Amino acid sequence: QVPLVESGGGLVQAGGSLRLSCTASDNIRGDDAMGWFRRAPGQQRVWVATVTGNGFTNYLDSVKDRFTISIDNAKKTMFLQMNDLKPEDTAVYYCSAWGPSRDDWGQGIQVTVSS
After folding, report:
1. Per-residue pLDDT for 7 more than 90?
2. Residue burial 6-37, b: 16+ Cβ < 10 Å; e: rest
3. How far is Cα 87 from Cα 108, in angstroms, rounded to an integer?
4. Quick one: which of 17, 49, 65, 112 has the most CB atoms within 10 Å?
């Protein structure tokens, strides 16, 4: 069973919006954290945003005023609302969940922003 499944990627013009979803196969525990990472072409994977079980959020500086991370525990789903997208946001986006008893990754989903 795939632990995390991403959806919602695609192609969008600069200035547009996309919402990524990440659905977990297991319940999201209070001591788990979830987050998004991305890998741009030819670059290493980097962290983008985190949401903890108690609702604390943190963002990469370059996305802080444009992206919003949230979590719906009942639906076991995390979201990344991405607004005012820029070509430099083009990457494969990965969701992850980590905690005392998990270290899970999704398969990745492509986001392409055209100029």
Report:
1. yes
2. bebbeebeeeeebebbbbbeeebeeebbbbbb
3. 18
4. 49
Residue 113 vs residues 4, 27, 53: alpha-carbon distances, Å: 24, 32, 31
Place of tokens 């370059």: 62
| Distance, CA of 84 to CA of 39 (rounded, Å) | 19
CA angle, 15 then 39 then 5, to 5°: 90
- Cβ-count burial 72-101 (b if 16+ within 10 Å, e if not): eeeebbbbbebeebeeebbbbbbbbbebee
As a whole number, mean pLDDT of residues 10-25 equals: 97
Model pLDDT for residues 69-107, shown as the tens digit of each residue:
999 888 889 999 999 999 999 999 999 999 998 899 999
Instruction: Say if CB 80 and CB 49 are below 8 A apart.
Output: yes
